[in-house]
Amino acid sequence: MKRYLFCFISALLLSSLASAAKPILIVVTNHGSIGNTGTPTGYYLSEVAHPWQVFTEAGYEVEFASPKGGFAPMDPKSFDLGDPINKKFWHSLEAVQGVVHTKSLGKLDPDSYAAIFFAGGHGTMWDFPTSKAVRKSIARHYKNGGVIGAVCHGPAALVGVEINGVPLVAGKTVAAFTNEEEAAVDLTDAMPFLLESKLRELGAEFTEAGNFKKNVAVSGRLVTGQNPASATDTAKGVLELLN
């Protein structure tokens, strides 16, 4: 009986601490097409849904933002409701409203969040690297001790981010969608740049696994994942740093 009461009280305390914590912000793209091809793209559902599941199960409130705010398009190829976590996300009215009506990143205080997580999808390659709101939010959050997560093409958000005049990724171990994976999905020539190549140019110690294999890198307060298969563990890496 005493052991049961101890476990019950401990669970209540952990729940109370989590509910009192700052929320986690998931940032998604506003860009909905592959260059000028007209082929639809956007955020990749599992790279939003799986981190959302990890964060909410840990007791964190999750909010959604995008560079411009408002509607965030989803890559139709990622709409897989055979994945039970995707299905749970898509059947959550609060979660779906979050990505349909995202907050404008530039209007948010980065210090109001425990962590900022950049979900992938090919759309990010067009608006994450060019967004002043993305660069400023990452730089301020990281400089002030915050945790940054990004998965697949989400690390495109890191391009152009500098801390005291030095690229944030310089000297850090970083994972992201690889050049080989881009070739495997036949989109090398459609991209504005190759993410792996750009991160290497900026001084990142790029790490890669085989095509579409799970791979997560933790370097300082930066957690990055290679592809959709890495989304859950990237989010777990963020939690480990927060805890």
Report the oligomer: single chain
Radius of gyration: 18 Å
CATH class: Alpha Beta
Shape: globular
How would you characterize the largest beta sheet? Answer: 7 strands, mixed
The span between the termini is: 29 Å
Instruction: Write out the CATH superfamily name.
Output: Class I glutamine amidotransferase (GATase) domain
Strand order of the largest sheet: 3-2-1-4-5-11-10
Quickly count the domains. Answer: 1
Low-confidence stretches: 12-19
Average pLDDT for all residues: 93
Classify the helix fraction into a percent range.
Answer: 25-40%
Q: What would the CATH topology be?
A: Rossmann fold
| Helix-strand category | alpha/beta
> How many helical elements?
9
The ordered H/E elements are HEHEHHEEHHEEEEHHEEEH
Strand content: 5-15%
Q: What's the total count of β strands?
A: 11
CATH architecture: 3-Layer(aba) Sandwich
Jot down its keywords.
Rossmann fold; 7-stranded mixed beta sheet; two-stranded antiparallel ribbon; globular
What is the topological layout?
Elements: H1 2-20, E1 24-27, H2 45-57, E2 62-66, H3 84-90, H4 93-100, E3 103-104, E4 115-118, H5 124-127, H6 132-143, E5 147-151, E6 162-163, E7 166-167, E8 173-174, H7 179-184, H8 195-201, E9 205-206, E10 216-219, E11 222-225, H9 231-242
Parallel strand pairs: 1-2, 1-4, 2-3, 4-5, 5-11, 8-9
Antiparallel strand pairs: 6-7, 10-11
Helix pairs in contact: 2-3, 2-9
